[in-house]
Amino acid sequence: MVTFLDEKEKATPVFNWPFSKIANSLEASVIRETLKISSKPGIINFAGGLPASELLPIDQIQECCDSVLTDHGAQALQYSISQGVPVLRELIAHRISRQGLPVTADNILITTGSQQGLDLIGRVFIEPGDYVITELPTYLGALQAFNFYQARYAPIPMDNDGMIIEQLEEKIKEFRPKMIYVVPNFQNPSGITLSYQRRKALMNLVFRHQIAMIDDNPYGELRYSGTPLPSLRGLGGDAVIQLGTFSKLISPGLRVGWICAPVSAIKIIEKAKQAVDLHSSTFTQFIAAEFLKRGYLDPHIEQIRTAYAVKRDTMIAAMKEYFPPSIRWPYPDGGLFLWVQLPDNVSASMVFQQAVHQGVAFIHGRPFHPDGSGDNTMRLNFASSSPENIVEGIKRLARVLSQYC
């Protein structure tokens, strides 16, 4: 005889499901949690990593959508291969080849944003307890991805030329890391670019010790000043796995990123991706490919470079005018972020609480530090606000900082 729950029992279920220890140990992204606060009306938001909404190429994307549905409708709405739509991989390979080292479509695997690329890297490389060398600070999303696979970290401090390479070999010998992870161009969160001499020194150590080198490069084409530098893949060839994305160049909503790696590595990573989502969105891959084929990408990049350079300069000028003189920041030649260093005795997390009351939000820096340091740092996004809001937001933040600095 089948017994059904009555309405009272269905209305008040009590579940005690056995989630894994890893799942139970996960922490919510401080950026996502902060965005919940900073999205309230009246708050000027320097917190997220968002590109400028007003610069999203809506008209061109609509044209591409129409063309894709007209010319490739059934194919674009169907399942696809795990490595990615061939025409898009060919177009990405061509762009990468222009930047220093010839690659083919076989070297490219399409991911659902570069964040999935980080997760796949963690899946295929990291076993519980393995060490990963990172910059200090480093990208929070990478820490979240690698934490799921129970990585440990050997962070290396940075100065204005990037990771201090003189400390790298000692860390390699001490911790025997599984891989080295860097964001060499306009780093998130610091905005710092790894210098040419340090790029060469880094790759020399990678070759000497035969360590996987992960180059996370979402901002490389967003340079507003200074001289372009060769990519780590351009210097190191197949010793480097490079991650890229169209999130900052076209639209984060497309969720189109990629991994560029040796074919032997791509085959292994592809197997891991099959277990995750079978393949990234066929439709948005076709849209991205159409955007590139129509020649829209390079002019759009020039447009956002021009706009972001103005916003960067506006924020720096306002900080120079209104911030207390004890506050420092490195000068970013590109990217989306300014990295603010408060006096050692000032807690940015405490400043944040007061700043929200004044109508401005940012990301405090400790979560970007795998060693738990950095409480006196904060990240400001200059890209997603108007120049007028940048000035007003910096004024509001300066009023709070003047109470602490």
Describe the fold and architecture.
The protein has about 400 residues and is an alpha/beta fold. The chain has helices spanning about 5-10, 20-25, 30-40, 60-75, 85-100, 115-125, 140-145, 170-175, 195-210, 230-235, 265-275, 280-295, 295-320, 350-355, 385-400, and strands spanning about 45, 110, 130-135, 150-160, 160-165, 180, 210-215, 240-245, 255-260, 335-340, 360, 365, 375-380. The chain has an 8-stranded mixed β-sheet with strand order 2-9-8-7-6-3-4-5, with helices on both faces. It has a 3-stranded antiparallel β-sheet with strand order 10-13-12. A hairpin with a 2-residue loop joins strand 4 (about 150-160) and strand 5 (about 160-165). The termini are far apart.
Q: How many separate domains? A: 2
Query: How are the strands ordered across the major sheet?
Result: 2-9-8-7-6-3-4-5
Instruction: Say how many strands there are.
Output: 13
Strand content: 5-15%
Poorly predicted residue ranges: none
Q: Calculate the mean pLDDT score and round it.
A: 94
CATH class of the largest domain: Alpha Beta
Helix content percent band: 40-55%
> Major sheet: size, sense and barrel closure?
8 strands, mixed
CATH-defined architecture of the largest domain: 3-Layer(aba) Sandwich
**Count of alpha/pi helices:** 15
Helix and strand composition category: alpha/beta
The CATH topology of the largest domain is what? Answer: Aspartate Aminotransferase, domain 2
Topology as a string of helices (H) and strands (E): HHHEHHEHEHEEHEHEHEEHHHEHEEEH
Shape: globular
Distance between the termini: 73 Å
